[in-house]
Design brief:
It contains eight helices and twelve strands. The longest helix is centred in the middle third of the chain and has 17 residues, at 127-143. It is α/β, with parallel strands linked by helices. It has helices spanning 12-27, 41-52, 69-77, 99-110, 127-143, 160-172, 185-197, 231-246, and strands spanning 2-6, 32-36, 59-63, 82-85, 93-97, 117-122, 153-156, 179-182, 207-209, 226-229, 255-258, 260-263.
Length: 270
């Protein structure tokens, strides 16, 4: 039995990762026990402690979000192998995305046709989706000699509604923005809806870009420019790593940083 701790059950990216994990673990003869935390760090810790109890699972994959002291304590107490997926955590076996590089390249591309960008991100306690993506955006702006003022950098949660509200705030501030880079596709969908209701043309007046390349990104109007992460492959690699740990004595931590692709579509200017 392998325990898999996930932040939310209704996430397209998590679904792709779990599909990859399940394919490998099932083939290796392991049952998968999913533990959904609904983005609650305390529930994550609770599941890790539950999995620490003898004989429940042979190994754990944690699709990480925020790491607190309690997380580190629970991880240290695990008597079975652990692989962290989608976050980089020092001293642990990890599979993670190149969030800095992805946002740098995405921002660099959209700024070829934009000069006044804004950014809608998520809380930076989430190092990958929050901090690293924000850093990549700012580095690309800086390298192009563009200053993005603090009032054009907002924090939302991972929902469409939060993206809509953040975009409303940007418009109310009358910053003259011509580009909105979003930390997730869901946030970008909200921004697109807000702009459409405000009769602001996308991409002619304002470009919008996101991260995740969920299926909806290819069918909404306009189709969303986004970053494609190899989430299913990430899950496959994490499961292979865990199977190796559960079947050998190798305990030297290793990390794998995954690649990405920027997918240009209709929401940004060609």
């Amino acid at each position: 039995m392998a325990g898999v701790v996930i932040p939310k059950i209704n996430s397209a990216s998590v679904g792709r990762m779990v599909a990859g994990i399940s394919s490998v673990l099932n083939e290796a003869g392991y049952q998968v026990l999913l533990a959904n935390t609904d983005n609650d760090p305390e529930r994550e810790v609770g599941f890790l402690r539950l999995f620490s109890e003898g004989g429940r699972v042979d190994g754990v994959i944690l699709i990480g979000t925020v790491f607190t002291r309690a997380h580190h304590s629970a991880i240290a107490s695990l008597p079975v192998p652990l692989v962290v997926l989608d976050q980089e955590l020092a001293g642990q076996w990890c599979i993670y995305q190149d969030d800095f590089g992805a946002l740098y390249q995405l921002t660099e591309q959209v700024l070829e046709r934009g000069e006044r960008p804004a950014y809608i991100g998520v809380l930076e306690d989430d190092v990958a989706a929050g901090k690293r993506r924000h850093e990549g955006f700012l580095a690309a702006c800086r390298d192009r000699g563009i200053a993005c003022p603090p009032e054009a950098q907002l924090v939302a949660d991972f929902s469409v509604d939060a993206g809509y509200t953040a975009c409303e705030q940007l418009l109310e501030r009358k910053l003259g923005i011509d580009t909105i880079v979003c930390a997730t596709d869901s946030i970008a969908y909200g921004a697109l809806t807000c702009l459409r209701e405000a009769d602001i043309a996308v991409p002619e007046a304002v470009q919008v870009a996101g991260v995740g390349d969920s299926e909806l990104s290819q069918v909404i109007t306009p189709r969303l420019t986004t970053v494609y992460y190899h989430y299913k492959t990430s899950g496959i690699e994490a499961a292979k790593m865990l199977v190796g740990l559960m079947t050998s004595s190798d305990r030297i931590p290793r990390e794998i940083k995954m690649g990405f692709e920027v997918i240009p579509r209709d929401s940004t200017r060609a």
